[in-house]
Amino acid sequence: MRQDAENPVVVKSFSFALRCVKLYKYLSTTRKEYVLSKQLLRSGTSVGANVKEAIRGQSKADFHAKMCIALKEISESEYWLELLYQSEYITASEFTSLYSDCKELLKMLTSITKTTRNNL
After folding, report:
1. pTM of the entire structure?
2. CB contact set of 105 (below 8 Å; sequence gap of 6+)
3. Residue 92 region, left (φ>0) first, then alpha (ψ -120 to 50), else beta?
4. What is the torsion angle, in degrees rounded to the nearest 10, for the CA atoms of residue 52, residue 57, residue 61 and residue 64?
5. pLDDT bracket for residue 1 (50, 70, 90)
6. Is residue 5's pLDDT more than 80?
7. How many angstroms separate the CA atoms of 98 and 53, rounded?
8. CA angle 46, 37, 97 (to 5 degrees)
9. pLDDT surpassing 60 at residue 86
10. Do 92 and 85 meet the contact criterion of CB atoms below 8 Å apart?
11. Up-side HSE of residue 49: CA atoms within 13 Å toward CB?
12. pLDDT over 90 (residue 106)
């Protein structure tokens, strides 16, 4: 098993990305919604990519910069989820489930970026 597979933010961000992919597939196939779901797909998968890139960063400053990008992407994902829900493309239960994962990642990444910034 790879070492970073045990890292909670890596695991959570990958899981979130996978859920965004599945939601996009569902919305584009079943609901014929392509614009909002594509935005969520882009931002939701970008979180994990930036987290992985941060872990392999060349310096603490590089790590911090990539984690800040991941934080921005999860914030954007939160927006798209809220918009999908308010526009009635997803149900309350679909929203609540994915939104709770989003909020958890938001808290994790906020904590990581604050701690890293203080240690630079």
Report:
1. 0.93
2. 9, 12, 13, 16, 47, 74
3. alpha
4. 10
5. very low
6. no
7. 23
8. 80
9. yes
10. yes
11. 10
12. yes
